[in-house]
Design a protein that fits this description.
mainly alpha; two-stranded antiparallel sheet
C-alpha cells in the first residue's frame, strides 16, 4: 500500500512539473513570432512612401486581395477622420479584432470588470 501511494505521489509531482516546465499551448508563442511588425506592414502598404496609406494602396495589399469587399469595410474603420487615407497614427490605433483584448487590455480584463460591477452592470 505504501508503494502504491508513493508511486501515485511521484506521478502527481512529475506531471505537475511537466506542466510547469512548458507552456500548455506552445503554438501561441509561435503565432506571435509569425505576426509581422505593424510598422513593417505600414511601410509595405505605403507603396508610394507618402507617409499614409491610400484606399488603392490598402486594397492592393495581399490580405485585401483575398476579400476586397471586407477590405473596403476594414479601410473605413481604420480611416477615423474619413479623409480617404490611413495615417501612421490611425494605423497604430486601429480597431482591434472583435472579441480580443482592446486598448491595452489583457485577456480576461473585461471579465474581471464585469465580475466587480454591480449586479447586471458591465462597466
Amino acid at each position: 500500500m505504501k508503494t502504491y501511494l508513493l508511486s501515485l505521489g511521484a506521478i502527481a509531482i512529475a506531471s505537475s512539473l511537466a506542466f510547469a516546465e512548458g507552456d500548455a499551448n506552445p503554438d501561441r508563442d509561435k503565432k506571435k513570432k509569425d505576426r509581422p511588425n505593424p510598422a513593417e506592414v505600414f511601410k509595405k502598404l505605403d507603396s508610394d512612401g507618402s507617409g499614409s496609406i491610400s484606399k488603392a494602396e490598402f486594397l492592393a495589399g495581399p490580405r485585401a486581395q483575398k476579400n476586397p469587399e471586407r477590405a473596403a469595410k476594414v479601410f473605413g474603420r481604420f480611416d477615423k477622420n474619413s479623409d480617404g487615407e490611413i495615417s501612421r497614427d490611425e494605423f497604430a490605433h486601429r480597431p482591434k479584432r472583435k472579441g480580443g483584448p482592446q486598448n491595452g487590455e489583457k485577456r480576461g480584463d473585461r471579465r474581471e470588470k464585469s465580475d466587480a460591477a454591480p449586479q447586471g452592470v458591465i462597466e
